[in-house]
C-alpha cells in the first residue's frame, strides 16, 4: 500500500538494533528493582545457614589478670627472739601479688521441644518465598519492559508512516504549484496543500519527540545512559493459541501469586509448631574448664609462693516453663487464627487469579480479532487511496477528497499498528498470569 516503503524501511537491520532478548539481558543485569530483590534473596539464603539454625553449641572464653602492690611493716613491739635479743621490725615495700585466670564454657541445647527444627524449616521456606519474590519482580519488570519496548516499536513505525505521509503532501503541493503556474488551478489549491504539509510536519515532530521520550523510559528500566541511541525490532509474532491453552492447565504450578500464597501458608504452619514447642521442656548440656595462677610475694612469716589450679565441670539442666502467665497459649491461638486467614487469602486469591486469567485470555483474543479486522481495514483504505490518487491526477476528484482519503489511510495504518502492539502486550500479560513469561520466546 501507499506506506509500504516506510514499513520496509522501518524493518531494515540497524547496527544499533536492540532486540527483545538483549533488552531482557540488560534488565536482569542492571535493573534496580531486580538487584534489590536479589539482595533480599541473599539475606534469606544466609538465614538458612547452619550458623543460624540453633543446632550448634555456644562456646565462651574468658580471661583475666590482676596485679596488687602492697607495703607492709611488722612491728614486734620489743619482743625478744630465742637468744633474748629484741626482734627487728620487718618492713616490706612494693610486694606484688599477681593473679591470672582463663576459662572456657560450653553450652548446648539438646532438646527444645523441636522449636529449632520448625524454625529452621521456616527459614528455608522463607528463602523459597524470597526466590519467588525475585521471580515475581522479574516477571513484572519484564512485562513493563516489553510494554515500553512495544511502544517504541509502534512509534518507530508511526514516525516512518508520518514521514511518508509528509512526502505525499509535499508531492501534492508541488503538483498544485505546477498547475497554478500553468493556470490550471487557483492559488487556494497551493495554500491548502501547504496547510496540510504543516499539519503533517507537526504530526511527524510530535511522533519523533514521543519516540525520544519513550526510548529514555526504556533506558531508565535498563539502568543505562538515558540518551543511549538504538533501534528496536518491529517484528511481531504471536504465540500459538493451542500452546497458550496448554499453559492454562498448569496455572496452579506456575502462577507466581499462587505459589507465594502457598509458601506463606506453609510459613504460618511452621509458626504454629514453633509456638507449640514453647510448651515443652528444654534440656541442655553444659561444660566448663577453668585455670587459675596466683603469684604471692614473701611475707614476714612465709616465703613467696606460686599456686596454679584447674578445674573441669560438666552438667545437664532441664527447664520447663510450666506456666508463663498464659502468653504462649495466647500466641498459639493467634498463630492458628493467622493460619486460617492465610488459608482464606489463598482461596480468595485462587478465584482472583482464575478471573484475571479469564479476563486476560478474553482481552487477548479480542485484541487479536481487532488486529485482524484492522488489517482488512488498511487494505480497504489503501485501495480507496490508490483509486482516489489516480482520479486526482486526472482531475476527477478534488484535493479535499484526496486529502480525506489520505487521512483515512493514515488513521487506518496507525490504528492497525496500535492494535498489533496492544495484542502482543495482551499476550505478554496473559503469559505472565500463567507463569510462562520467562519460558517463551519474546
Automatic annotation (TrEMBL):
Using the record, list the residue span of the signal peptide; answer none if the entry has no such feature. none
Report if keyword Transport is assigned.
yes
Q: Which regions span the lipid bilayer?
A: none
Q: Of which family is this protein a member?
A: Belongs to the outer membrane factor (OMF) (TC 1.B.17) family.
Q: Which SUPFAM superfamilies match?
A: Outer membrane efflux proteins (OEP) (SSF56954)
Matching InterPro entries: OMP_efflux, TolC-like
The superkingdom of the source organism is Bacteria
Annotated compartments: Cell outer membrane
Q: Which UniProt keywords apply?
A: Cell outer membrane, Membrane, Transmembrane, Transmembrane beta strand, Transport
Q: What is this protein called?
A: TolC family protein
Q: Does the keyword Cell cycle apply?
A: no
Coarsely, its chief localization is membrane
Q: Which organism is it from?
A: Nonlabens mediterrranea
Amino acid at each position: 500500500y501507499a506506506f509500504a516503503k516506510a514499513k520496509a524501511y522501518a524493518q531494515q537491520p540497524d547496527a544499533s538494533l536492540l532486540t527483545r532478548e538483549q533488552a531482557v539481558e540488560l534488565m536482569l543485569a542492571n535493573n534496580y528493582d531486580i538487584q534489590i530483590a536479589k539482595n533480599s534473596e541473599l539475606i534469606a539464603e544466609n538465614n538458612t545457614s547452619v550458623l543460624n539454625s540453633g543446632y550448634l553449641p555456644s562456646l565462651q572464653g574468658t580471661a583475666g589478670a590482676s596485679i596488687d602492690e602492697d607495703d607492709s611493716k611488722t612491728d614486734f613491739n620489743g619482743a625478744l627472739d630465742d637468744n633474748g635479743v629484741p626482734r627487728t621490725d620487718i618492713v616490706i615495700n612494693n610486694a606484688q601479688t599477681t593473679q591470672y585466670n582463663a576459662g572456657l564454657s560450653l553450652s548446648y541445647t539438646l532438646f527444645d521441644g523441636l522449636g529449632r527444627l520448625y524454625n529452621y524449616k521456616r527459614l528455608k521456606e522463607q528463602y523459597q518465598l524470597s526466590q519467588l519474590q525475585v521471580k515475581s519482580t522479574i516477571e513484572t519488570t519484564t512485562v513493563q519492559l516489553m510494554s515500553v519496548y512495544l511502544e517504541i516499536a509502534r512509534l518507530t513505525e508511526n514516525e516512518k508512516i508520518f514521514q511518508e505521509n509528509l512526502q505525499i503532501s509535499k508531492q501534492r503541493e508541488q503538483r498544485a504549484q505546477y498547475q497554478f503556474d500553468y493556470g490550471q488551478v487557483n492559488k487556494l489549491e497551493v495554500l491548502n496543500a501547504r496547510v496540510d504539509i504543516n499539519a503533517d510536519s507537526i504530526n511527524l515532530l510530535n511522533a519523533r519527540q514521543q519516540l525520544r521520550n519513550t526510548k529514555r523510559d526504556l533506558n531508565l528500566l535498563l539502568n543505562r545512559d538515558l540518551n543511549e541511541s538504538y533501534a528496536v525490532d518491529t517484528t511481531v509474532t504471536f504465540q500459538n493459541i493451542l500452546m497458550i491453552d496448554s499453559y492454562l492447565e498448569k496455572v496452579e504450578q506456575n502462577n507466581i501469586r499462587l505459589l507465594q500464597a502457598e509458601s506463606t501458608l506453609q510459613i504460618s504452619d511452621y509458626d504454629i509448631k514453633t509456638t507449640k514447642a514453647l510448651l515443652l521442656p528444654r534440656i541442655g548440656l553444659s561444660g566448663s574448664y577453668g585455670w587459675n595462677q596466683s603469684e604471692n610475694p614473701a611475707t614476714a612469716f612465709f616465703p613467696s609462693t606460686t599456686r596454679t589450679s584447674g578445674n573441669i565441670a560438666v552438667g545437664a539442666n532441664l527447664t520447663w516453663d510450666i506456666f508463663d502467665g498464659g502468653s504462649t497459649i495466647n500466641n498459639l491461638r493467634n498463630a492458628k487464627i493467622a493460619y486460617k486467614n492465610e488459608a482464606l487469602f489463598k482461596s480468595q486469591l485462587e478465584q482472583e487469579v482464575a478471573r484475571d486469567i479469564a479476563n486476560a485470555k478474553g482481552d487477548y483474543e479480542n485484541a487479536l480479532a481487532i488486529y485482524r479486522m484492522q488489517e482488512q481495514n488498511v487494505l480497504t483504505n489503501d485501495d480507496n487511496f490508490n483509486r482516489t490518487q489516480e482520479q486526482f491526477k486526472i482531475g476527477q476528484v478534488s484535493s479535499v477528497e484526496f486529502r480525506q482519503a489520505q487521512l483515512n489511510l493514515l488513521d487506518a495504518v496507525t490504528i492497525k499498528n496500535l492494535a498489533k502492539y496492544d495484542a502482543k502486550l495482551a499476550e505478554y500479560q496473559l503469559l505472565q498470569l500463567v507463569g510462562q513469561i520467562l519460558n517463551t520466546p519474546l
